[in-house]
Amino acid sequence: MARFLIKRIFSAVLTLFAVSVLTFLMFFALPRDPVSGMCPKNCNPERLERVRQELGLRDPLVTQYAGYMKGIFTGRDLGSAQGGRCDAPCLGWSYVNNEAVLDTITRVLPVTLSIVIPAAILWLLLGVGLGMVSALRRGTWLDRAAIGFSLTGASLQLYFVGAVLLMIFVYNLRWLPVPSYTSVFDNPVKWASGLVLSWIALAFLFSAIYARLSRAQMLETLSEDFVRTARAKGLAKPAVYGRHALRAAITPVVTIAGLDVGAALGGTVITETTFGIQGLGRTAVEAVRAGDLPTIMATVLISAVFVVLANVLVDLLYAAIDPRVRLG
Amino acid sequence: MDRSDPAPSGEPDRPSVPEQRSGEDPYLRVNDLRVRFDTSDGVVRAVDGVSFSVQRGRTLGIVGESGSGKSVTSLAVLGLHEEKRTTITGEISVGGRQLVGLPEEEVRRLRGRDMAMIFQDPLSALHPYFTVGRQIAEAYRVHHPKAGKRAARQRAVDMLGRVGIPQPARRFDQYPHEFSGGMRQRAMIAMALVNDPDLLIADEPTTALDVTVQAQILDLLADLQAEFHSAIIMITHDLGVVSQIADEVLVMYGGRAVEHGSVEQVLRRPQHPYTWGLLSSVPSLHGDADADLVPIAGNPPSLINLPSGCAFHPRCRYADRNGDRSRTEVPQLRPAGGPGHLVACHLSADDRTRLYAEDIAHVGVAR
User: Fold this and answer.
1) Residue numbers in A near B110 (CB within 8 A)
2) Which of A224, A233, A323 sits opposite B139 (nearest CB)?
3) Phi/psi of residue B112, nearest 5 degrees
């Protein structure tokens, strides 16, 4: 198990390194001058040249990359125009936002986490629950209702569901305030009421896939020989379904869930845009639009970290669930 | 529907137990069992009026091709069929208790305690995510709720040792994939026997194993039977297995019993052309090594639309000997020669004796 863990973490680090190099190359080595994109008008050549110097764009690529990485791990000096000393983890300075990229990130990352984590819990419970119930009640009205629900969820788009939810609960019934972000540590009630619609919208769409997946998995597992063995032992139904069948059926769901959550943490652009909340996703899109290189770099890297972390987590969970995986 | 009544008048009440030892009632008694599944293609009559009984300490072999109803019969005894889509009628009496119609919860309490089952493929029949020991201990604790974890573990380790698994305490914590095929089947047997069941049903327990391991497992079952004095039903398509372990044999075809008798009777003086076919398709150790094996022509019948009359008639070489009878009339189990030997065939006793001697005897399996 320890060896498995070390191997997995090592390969994760390698992946992150590759992603950072690729991102760096893509944005800093493109033929287009990134600086001119940052201020399309009113920029005299002297100012552009100064920015280039400050960004280190005149240095060789390797030096630039080393500097960037050094900033992340030990911090570095960016010069007075970029806020001076930048402590680790330094992600650079954004001329567009006129602040350290790290400050932007620490502001918007909790927003995305606050949207994705509760939504993920909700969609997993709802999706897996529905899937299990409809598998065990196969062919009944309950099963058909669950399938109908999941088909609806799978065919709808978030901006539509979000808009409908907003219209009903915020503008017509006025049960909820206009969505906004408040830190959960400042006011948990306000935090929840400001985000609950985004959770519901995401959960509705995602749980659809999970309901179908876990229903199919459960049905397949129920026809397995070991489930029959469990019954032949004289185990009661809750133990047969809960302990023996569910454990085997849940494995693929765990995989998909890990990947989905990892991807969602990298930014839920449409959700954030629909509900007018500034999270990592919107920040990334705006940075791309503005050609804000340091911010783009940071958001891409953070998304990559989430995806890689989620993958490692999935592998560990897998090994915890299925002893046969530990051999590999 | 035709009843294949097991008891023609004049015969003792339970002719299905040949050479019955006097003084002991059969532990399992199945009478006129019928199992039907409702499917979208129609009603599958998987078992259609089968009767047999087994005493403690005795072994009944149920033989037949796939789809003959042998596994369905055993699953019905344990009540493992899906309730909604299955109709079971007839009698299944285990230790004097009638199981057909009993609430699921009561059957569940008997399962694993009074009657247990060994399945064909121990790799898929054991849960891949739990240790072997835990699965055995779990089987023990279901029926001994007062037993602590440690007691259950001790019991499981004892059982693993008893079925011949070396270092049972260490093997307890291993997973099924860390066991070899033979060891897995031993573990499966340990799990089935952990509660000292009086009835053990083994559904092709050696089919997934190689031949040397097969023999070991059969020996083990025989030893354990001597020790635990349980009734065993051995479901198999392998007449070699039957000859090794069974006391009596029930041959099934198309959901019905076609021949029933002691091992001696059925293997030495088989009466039904289907049994002849089974015997001719098995190589014999003592026979001519160059002799051709004779497969039974055709395929097992569809259980949704069974051939009229004798279900075996489309594949039977002798079906025309009685005019249309084979096609129109379902043969009933009738006494055939020896005491307790029953056969469901329209051929006359003389015909059967002569045809067997002429066509079959020289290629058949001899013990």
Assistant:
1) 234
2) A233
3) 85, -20
* Whether A262 contacts A309, CB under 8 Å: yes
Q: Which residues contact A313 (CB under 8 A, 6 or more apart)?
A: A258
Q: Which residues of B touch A324 (CB under 8 A)?
A: 128, 175, 177
In angstroms, rounded to a whole number, what is the distance separating the alpha carbons of residues B30 and B13? 13
Interval A235-290: pLDDT, tens: 999 999 989 999 899 988 988 898 899 888 887 889 999 998 999 999 999 988 88
Contacts of B72 (CB under 8 A, 6+ apart): B35, B46, B47, B81, B255
**pTM of the shown model:** 0.80
Structure tokens at B186: 């031993």
Per residue in B325-361, pLDDT (tens digit) is: 888 888 989 898 788 899 999 988 888 888 888 877 7
Say if residues B311 and B2 touch (Cβ distance below 8 Å). Answer: no
Listed residue (B344, B347, B353, B328) closest to B8, CA to CA: B344
Q: Does A224 touch chain B (CB under 8 A)?
A: yes
Look up the ipTM and state it.
0.84
Would you call B139 and A234 a contact, using CB atoms and an 8 Å cutoff?
yes
Sheet holding B256-262, edge to edge: B115-118, B199-203, B231-236, B59-63, B248-253, B256-262, B342-343, B334-335
